[in-house]
Write a structure and sequence with these properties.
With 367 residues, the protein is of the alpha/beta class. It folds into 3 domains: 4-57, lambda repressor-like DNA-binding domains (434 Repressor (Amino-terminal Domain), Orthogonal Bundle); 76-181 and 306-332, Rossmann fold (3-Layer(aba) Sandwich), CATH 3.40.50; 184-302 and 339-366, 3-Layer(aba) Sandwich (Rossmann fold), CATH 3.40.50. The protein has helices spanning 4-7, 14-21, 25-32, 40-53, 59-71, 95-110, 126-135, 184-197, 211-214, 218-229, 247-256, 266-277, 304-321, 354-358, 360-366; strands at 77-83, 113-119, 140-145, 164-169, 178-182, 203-207, 239-240, 260-263, 284-290, 298-301, 332-335, 338-340. Strand 1, helix 6 and strand 2 (113-119) form a beta-alpha-beta unit. It is elongated.
Length: 367
């Protein structure tokens, strides 16, 4: 057996690490991938030896192995998809949440994995859920968080230390893990680009009770930036719609007279139509959380299936690097929305180029 000092400056292999600490080669491979099936003491010992020997993994070998595994029809690892609400929660039947799961399942299959769903039911303890994950040899999880009593203060009640993990939905406050979402900030900017080109100038935003706050107010921040930095626009205050006070929207419409409204709830569109039938001027409508069921409505589609897919990519990439648990620096990844032209906006005046107005300072610097 070679000692650590005998290795010198030769290219260090996993076999050399195994010889140095007197373990099997497969044990070294598992330890360097932080496989939770090994005792933590064994993993620490092997990592310490690897550092002393100067071992560095070859990324090309890791890539080759991942491609071989993907082409091997016999390989089928399993990822976990954890909903932080009970299975009976009506929210899960909505298009966005269905797309999360469908996108995640499709991408998992492409990468050679099954995807098993789990729900934080009232009778399921965090300990029991961990036992289920370990029993199925699941080492990577996607956490889909929605507001619920299962995660008070947005804190996930299970220990994710043994898992490669990423989250979608409402961001968790703890643990801080990699997160994928639609780019809420850009939704209002994407919509503004389109309606300004159609001649609209009095842009209004109506946000639902929870939609904006759940996304750290990114949607209203994007809308505010459009109004603040685009010359020639009326600066209308944001209307915070409450279902128990529908008259609030009518009062806001009468006072501020928007020519187009951006909203996050189809109910708002219905109230706009009632407003028009009462003899008030016609108002354009843009749904900032558009889904195909809205058909002829104009809006911004969040591409939620790509969000689930990207979350799986994050989890699998961590598995390939042997990473698990909360990262040192959690990263946020945002999927771009897509404009969907419908019949609820039309040309009403001369076009305004949002990009030329919004990025005017930058354009002067680069010219």
């Amino acid at each position: 057996m070679q000692s650590l000092n005998q290795i010198g400056k030769t290219i260090v292999t996993q076999k050399m690490i195994a010889d140095a600490v007197n373990v099997h080669l497969s044990t070294v491979s598992l330890a360097l991938r932080n496989d939770p099936r090994l005792p933590e003491k064994t993993r620490r010992k092997i990592h310490t030896a690897a550092r002393k020997l100067g071992y560095t993994p070859n990324p090309l070998v890791s890539l080759l192995l991942s491609r071989v595994r993907r082409r091997n029809a016999g390989f089928r690892g399993t990822l976990g998809y954890i909903h932080t609400v009970p299975e009976s929660t009506p929210l899960l039947a909505g298009r966005v949440y269905r797309n999360y799961v469908e996108g995640a399942r499709r991408r998992a299959s492409e990468l050679g994995y099954n995807l098993d769903e789990f729900f934080l039911e009232p009778g399921l303890s965090p300990r029991r859920l961990l036992e289920m994950l370990h029993a199925r040899n699941i080492m990577g999880i996607v956490v889909e968080h929605a507001p619920s009593t299962s995660c008070p203060n947005r804190v996930l009640p299970i220990d994710i230390t043994p898992f490669a993990a990423a989250s979608v939905g409402v961001p968790l406050s703890r643990p801080q893990i990699h997160y994928v979402a639609n780019d809420q900030y850009m939704r209002a900017i994407i919509a503004a680009r389109e309606v300004l080109a159609l001649g609209y100038r009095r842009l209004g935003l109506v946000v639902g009770e929870h939609f904006d706050s759940a996304m750290a107010h990114r949607c209203s921040a994007g809308f505010w930036a459009v109004q603040e930095y685009t010359r020639g626009l009326a600066k209308l205050p944001i209307c915070r719609y409450q279902r128990d006070d529908p008259g609030k929207l009518a009062r806001w419409l009468k006072r501020h007279r928007p020519d187009v409204v951006f909203g996050t709830d189809q109910v708002i569109h219905s109230l706009l139509q009632l407003h028009e039938r009462s003899g008030s001027p016609s108002v354009g409508w843009v749904h900032l959380d558009w889904v195909p069921e809205h058909k002829n409505t104009s809006g911004v589609y969040g591409n939620s299936d790509h969000i689930g897919s990207a979350a799986v990519d994050l989890v699998v990439s961590q598995l390939h690097r042997g990473e698990s648990g909360p990262p040192v620096r959690a990263m946020n990844y945002f999927v771009s929305g897509t404009w969907k032209q419908g019949k609820t906006v039309r040309r009403i005046g001369p076009s305004l180029d949002l990009d030329a107005a919004f990025f005017s300072d930058l354009l002067r610097i680069s010219s």
